[in-house]
Amino acid sequence: MSKLPHITTxxxxxxxxxAAEYNAINLSQGFPNFPxxxxxxxxxxxxxxxxxxxxxxxxxxxxxxxxxxKLVQTSYNRIIEPETEVLVxxxxxxxxxxxxxxxxxxxxxxxxxxxxxxxxxxxxxLSNAKPVRVALNDDYTPNWETIEKACxxxxxxxxxNNPHNPTGKILTENxxxxxxxxxxxxxxxxxxxxxxxxxxxxxxxxISAHTKEFLLNRCIMISSFxxxxxITGWKIGYVVAPEYLMKExxxxxxxxxxxxxxxxxxxxxxYLDVVDVNLLGKFYQGKRDxxxxxxxxxxxxxxxxxxxxxxxxxYANISKNDDVTFCKKLITDHSVAAIPISxxxxxxxxxxxxxxxxxxxxHTLESAAEKLRKI
Length: 375
Prior knowledge:
The chain is α/β, with parallel strands linked by helices. Helices cover 39% and strands 15% of the residues. The protein has 14 helices and 13 strands. It has helices at residues 11-21, 38-47, 62-76, 82-85, 92-103, 121-126, 144-150, 173-185, 225-228, 243-256, 262-271, 280-295, 323-334, 362-373, and strands spanning 25-26, 86-89, 109-114, 130-135, 155-161, 190-194, 219-224, 237-240, 301-302, 310-314, 336-337, 339-340, 353-357. The protein has a seven-stranded mixed beta sheet, with helices on both faces. The chain has a four-stranded antiparallel beta sheet with strand order 9-10-13-12. A two-stranded parallel ribbon has the order 1-11. The mean pLDDT is 96. This is Aminotransferase class I/II-fold pyridoxal phosphate-dependent enzyme. Belongs to the class-I pyridoxal-phosphate-dependent aminotransferase family. Pfam families: Aminotran_1_2.
């Protein structure tokens, strides 16, 4: 008998498989297709001949853990203890899974804000806990009144994703004030803050949970080197949490993967000495602006994009099909792959919206836009 009877193949896998079958331009799955920084590949080339191919310590390669603490301090003016508050994980997804498995127990409830990334619900269900899905407003701002009503004495965790996938929305100062009010009313409630796109914001600066004093003792932070450095296939992320929570997360982590890829950890620890994460926002803003310009004369309606490397558009002026059907036809009839937004909702709410990934080289964006403008 299945533990996850209602969960089928991920929509990301479905659309990427179709894109390959129909030789379509894949703007669905969120991974860059342009070259990795040569400084990083040069580091990896040298390391291949060095003694860095055995297990690292379970919690992570110590120099990388020190670099993470330094990155958090320089980015958010927060001082953390590498040995007790940092964990290197096999991607952000593994960090999320380990955190939920460690801290959420049978009978607990976890607040998930829809549209939500699909890796949140499964570990909740596998903990024999209850996911409580709460929809964001139609403009993707949180409805804190509705969120508070969804909380109860059984609520153990609320998951926030900032910047938000799939919508590109970022949280405001007022959002954190409202979250603080909820936490004051529910003292046992923890926050899992998924900030894998933390360095990819545009006109407005990203506000991290790292900067909120009231959150620090009750928050698990999830970050991703894969997203930040265009190396999604490396599957390297990290978790920052207070020691009393991290002790429990490490217990799960050690039996899930034990330790993470050694050469990747060493390479990133050295790369952090030469890369400037503050340039990422400007780089991806250029990608966003270019893609928006390319399709602004199409029949698609652009929605606001404040962060991440995803652009949501409406196709309401083009078709009455549901968004899953539209995305499949977009592949078969027009050779471009996208992701339907309804799949991020528990009730499959369909607003005729789809998501494109613009983390692609300009030739790919131009080729895709040429096809989209003809629809």
